[in-house]
Prior knowledge:
2 domains
Amino acid sequence: MAANLEKLVESLSALSVLEAAELVKALEEKWGVSAAAPVAVAAAGPAVAAEPVEEKTEFDVVIKDAGPKKIETIKVIRTLTSLGLGEAKALAETAGGKVLSAVGKEAAMDAKKKLEEAGAVIEIA
């Protein structure tokens, strides 16, 4: 196996810069990854640390998908919002619907946990 790796290294070393760039692009497409992402994150790191970041205090709990146990999700929505059955069902079936708006971080995380336990896919915005 080591001999195969050495042959591969020799073959790759013979590539021109343009060919190497094309190889990277082809591998990114084949594997569904990006070789540039870690570099971009590392480059953005110091800039974020240098600027004071205002912490968000209000969050929206957004439902992306009710999940396989839609009835459980509807029940949780009803307990969180005091909506009627029809309204809660409509909200559960609406991707991108706000279950809660402008709530604190703790309330948003608690709601997310309860909804995810019921099988829903939730996003905190």
